[in-house]
Amino acid sequence: MVTTAEAIDYKGKKVEFPLEYAAENEIPDEELHEHLAKPSTERTKRLKARCRWKHASAGEFVEKGVCAGIERMRLLTEAHKASEGKPEVMRRALGLANILNKCTVVLQDDEFIIGYHAEDPNMFPLYPELAYMAVADYLITDYAPQPVEEAREIMDYWVPYSMQSKCEHYFDPEDLQRMYQVSTMEAPGFATGYNSIVPPYETVLEDGLLKRIELAEANIQMAKDKMAEMPWDATKGLAWLDKIDNWEAMILVDKAVIAWARRHARLCKIVAENFETDPKRKEELLEIADINQRVPAEPCKGLKDAFQAKWYTYLLCHAIDRYASGMAHKEDTLLWPYYQNSVIDKSFQPMTHADVVEMVEMERLKVSEHGAGKSRAYREIFPGSNDLFIISLGGTLPDGSDACNDMTDAILEATRNIRTTEPSLMFRYSKKGRSKTKELVFGCIRDGLGYPSIKHDEIGVQQMKEYGKFSTEGKGATDEEAHNWVNVLCMSPGIHGRRKTQKTRSEGGGSIFPAKIMEVTLNDGYDWSYADMQLGPKTGNAEDFNTFEKLWEAFKVQYQYAASLVIRCKDTLRYFEGKFLQMPFVSSIDDGCMELGRDACELSEQPNGWHNPITTIVAANSLVAIKKLIYDEKKYTMKQLMDALKANWDGFEEMRKDFKNAPKWGNDDEYADAIIKDFYEDIIGGEMRKITNYSGGPVLPVGQAVGLYMEIGSRTGPTPDGRYGGEAADDGGISPYMGTDTKGPTAVLRSVSRVQKNQKANLLNQRLSLPIMRSQHGFNVWHAYMDTWHDLNIDHVQFNVVSTAEMKAAQKEPEKHQDLIVRVAGFSARFVDIPTYGQNTIIARNEQEFGAEDYEFIDADL
Amino acid sequence: MSVVESQLHIEMGTKKPCRNCKWEIADPTNPNQGQCTVNRTKAGSVWKRWVRDVHNMTCTHYEEGELSFRDHV
Amino acid sequence: MTTYGEHKNFFAIPEDADDFEPGKGDFVVQVRDEKGTYWLSKPVFADQEITAEDLQLSK
């Protein structure tokens, strides 16, 4: 049976923890999660059973038969060759149009939301115009595009035109070599092709593309009229030329998108009228044909329209025009008007709430089989998942009222029913949020999905306002618009809506890794343990740091070098994106780009300067141990420490114990927390804040660890926190190191709440006691914990609620545990698709038990 | 930890290049470079080494074959 | 030698469609694999020689 929590004495009474669901008394701990999926209909049950998962792990695709397609790269290249001499933005438009006009369109049995981004649902596209190395890597794999010689020719053709070649020219090859190996710094976007975006879905659903075409046509006419004014003024008049090019490109691609969607409509009709034998499916196909004939050309009128138009926009923005990770949108707010039409008013596409739940389940399965042609680095760092798909829910509306609605609930119900690793959810936690919805949030967490992750609603609003002040266009988010924020990827907030969204990756990515930076700081900038080369400036050897302050300053120099270099890379890419990688479709659906005649990559109205320090706590705990044992207590010398590290602690076991047992982050320990607070605020955030990026704002840390904590751990030698070489690093931006937060869940919150300056976007991973969460008190405990977390002004938290027994059983018999999902970092993963190395890091996380003092601190009502 | 005695070294034109070795996986960015995963710590962690040139580097731990994703990172 | 236009899976594009061109059609095939079945449609021209791959797919 599922283990129950022991009774405790609390506020003068004995409190017992019986399971919320009595039937679980019959289920062994080792198989609990295989009993939790409950697809709401036979259709979604079938769709899940045949889902074409595209999980990657250790850089490889887990399922056989998944491979890269050649169609997109072939059609893009054909258009590029044919468009020489035309304005660059028009070449981009012609490229996308050629893909949409000539690509294969896909319709799978049983689907209601249709559309795919490659020539076969087992495939995914590649992007030779971005990073030639990423394509070259695919060519040496079993899932290379076929015919591989043609793919190689295409890659070779693009080398001089690629973002990688354009950007590399402006960097020292030594710096690039340091970045490409991903140990102190992540490789730049121009070498990986990695990207993210917040598509302005709202304009597609509310206006339809025919309206956007009309707007662009009117703008062109207006521009021509202005240019014809006499007397001619070149200082103003010439600016219209680029704008006209942009508007013409928008018109061209929007027409191509409409025609592409209507090709899908035609396919449904052909299948219905010529092949389909089931009368019910035949009728449904004709309904789908009708929807796809109307949207995204016309405004959406009902919920079915909205799901379909949203899906097409998603495919275009995240996969066809360009690869972009994320699924950033506020799905409940976006779909609420259509929910009202279809479910409440029943004025168009009438349906029940249960029908909506099925639609959401179907959408989640579409996302689950979406394949991303991402580079090897990114196939390595989301092990057990497909890509970073993160939908935002909840929070507050522009007038400050609760944004939760019945669409929020439908999304949460479907999510819990269908149990997929993606898309992940983020819930904006406000005390105004209704309890009914929070219970559904808790239901997903308690069932071990690892999401929704929780972000502090008011902090997000404040962050949007703060960044808005730095807008170089003078058009940052207003106080009302600041409520319209979503997670762009795992952690970083950005605006959603009709304009001011982030169109390209000016946040996250290009991470820097304090654990490895700490290692090279002790060695004069040299990396002895992985690459055997100089990785940073020469700042002296550890033995020469006769004060703690000298070590602190040396680290600061190494950190600033890494931070400045990676952000210079990002901004250089942004510069070239605006010149050669324009996105006229995205421009066409953004009100700012449409009004100003500017390209989406080039225009930045709302700055978004988040950037990733990951593995911070290994460095921070190392500093604490060094300060205590070497500089304060003088128990060891730096020379002894360096000898021990070079030996990977071999022969220095007692010494290692001392360093391992030195105070650690997450235990409400004043000594450790004082040093680590300064480390976060003065170096991690303080040094970063000195940098100004493309969008004119300061750069701030967003610790969204993804699987990089494993990769960096395996590339980092032993560290002074007592860690052995090769062991994983810490798994979140501000999470305690696995297994070292031993003073209970509220001690963790007290430590984390001490960091308040220069950053508020650090990932906090917590593993909560499964017996407590599955008990009848589960929701009350979690709710009280969340309100305390909110009052402590912490930005983020997310949870694993999964037993060690079940994870160990899954390691032994993976085939029996396909539905076991765990939270890794900013994403959830199928446990059995994670390498053993990573699985062990989840098991090693401390399962937080609540004691009476914890219940008192959160004032739980038991 | 079990230290590998024979270190990675350049051997131009080697018939046992890291590229073909079961302990090597490609570099995260540049496919002409790689990562060696043969070193395992006592706790079972993979302590990687960077391979500067997968076509012309080798060591005595060379083995042909393929490692399951479960044994990587 | 067979052309797409002669094949039963060729469907001429209606004249009122956005992508209408004389002789242009959709070539539609059904594919079955271990996961399930799906339909593929790609634009072709009636007088274009059908590829061996498409001929195989359309069986």
From TrEMBL, chain A:
Ranges where the PFL domain occurs = 42-724
Keywords for the protein's UniProt record, in alphabetical order: Lyase, Organic radical
Q: Which residues does this entry mark as bearing Glycine radical?
A: 826
Coiled-coil ranges from the UniProt annotation: none
Q: Which residues form the Glycine radical domain?
A: 732-851
- Stored Pfam families: Gly_radical, PFL-like
Cross-referenced InterPro entries: Gly_radical (IPR001150), GRE (IPR051215), PFL_dom (IPR004184)
| Record GO cellular component, one term | cytosol
GO MF terms listed in the record are: lyase activity
PANTHER family reported for this sequence: DEHYDRATASE YBIW-RELATED, FORMATE ACETYLTRANSFERASE 3-RELATED
* Protein name as it appears in the record: Glycyl radical enzyme
Originating organism: Desulfosarcina ovata subsp. ovata
UniProtKB/TrEMBL annotation, chain B:
- Superkingdom to which the source organism belongs: Bacteria
The name under which this protein is listed is Benzylsuccinate synthase beta subunit domain-containing protein
Per its UniProt record, what InterPro entries does this chain match? BSS-like_sf, BssB_TutG
Q: Name the Gene3D superfamilies on file.
A: 4.10.490.20
Limits of the Benzylsuccinate synthase beta subunit domain: 8-73
TrEMBL record, chain C:
Query: Sorted alphabetically, which Pfam families does this protein's record hold?
Result: BssC_TutF
Show the Gene3D superfamilies listed in the entry: Benzylsuccinate synthase gamma subunit
Q: Which InterPro entries match?
A: BssC (IPR013161), BssC_sf (IPR038640)
Q: What is the name of the protein in this document?
A: Uncharacterized protein
Which organism is this entry from?
Answer: Desulfosarcina ovata subsp. ovata
In the record, what lineage is assigned to the organism producing the protein? Bacteria, Pseudomonadati, Thermodesulfobacteriota, Desulfobacteria, Desulfobacterales
